[in-house]
Amino acid sequence: MNTKSPLYAKNARPAPDLAGPELKPRLTLLLAAPRGFCAGVNRAIRIVELAIEKYGSPIYVRHEIVHNRSVVERLERLGAIFIEELNEAPDGARVIFSAHGVPKSVPREAKRRQLFYLDATCPLVSKVHVEAERHHGAGRVIILIGHAGHPEVIGTIGQLPEGAVLLVETVADAERLELGRDIALAYITQTTLSVDDTAEIVATLKRRFPHIAGPHKDDICYATTNRQEAIKAIAPQADLVLVIGSANSSNSQRLVEVARKAGARKAHLIENAAAIDWNAVSGARIVCLSAGASAPEVLVEEVIAAFRARYSLNVEEAVASREDVEFKLPRALAG
Q1: Residue 283 belongs to a domain with what CATH number?
Q2: For residue 30, what is the enclosing H or E element?
């Protein structure tokens, strides 16, 4: 799915402070790659676009299709209406479930109301749902590593009867678990977590419960992992790391945290170019730029343009891995 390649950006070398007739300060903008949209996000957005093309507007979308305001606002202009609960959709409506996944009660209610619906749940989230059901069927108590209140976590917990899943957010939570040693256990994880933080929690669970079962392959998705590795590789060089993403985007928030832990002097999340704090940029010679998996590349281009207007800019791209993943569309929209 992913072909790893060595990081190939030269170490950025700061240039003299001023250059050119306009006396703009010089600055190197180091672009992390991969960045931005992943296959699951591409699929989810395409589902909304194609549904509007095929069925006309409005198309109701339960929860933001992905956590990015720019994406949501563009789809609203095309004819999507975003709702939080199915009872906000009128009878006869066409509904799409977001990429984060939904509890089983949601499609059940849609069927009861005879609503036409399409499921845009990321296939890698669906994989976690299948794992949860498999472990539950084998009689195991399931520990879900994730963030309380996140729609993906709500959807995963909602695959099983109430009480079947225990949520753990931190190492401290894992240490506090009180479970008999004879209880069969398994763990699963949210797909957009910090790889390193999750590894610490898993290590704690395995130390305390040596027989705990885990996934055959890590639940944290390839895109989250790749974007974090790309940030780690270049953050130590940066005076400032900027991550483009919305505040409610888990994978974008984790990129900021990873950058700080990797040695970035400063790291900030920004919604778009208009949100750049130029006082924070002042004095920087090397700025690293990435984007969460739900942030479109056009926002990256706008940030680059904003820097170019203020600086004599040297843009370099650091490629940590390449991605060629694609997910199939629902049959109703394929072809």
Answers
A1: 3.40.1010.20
A2: strand 24-33
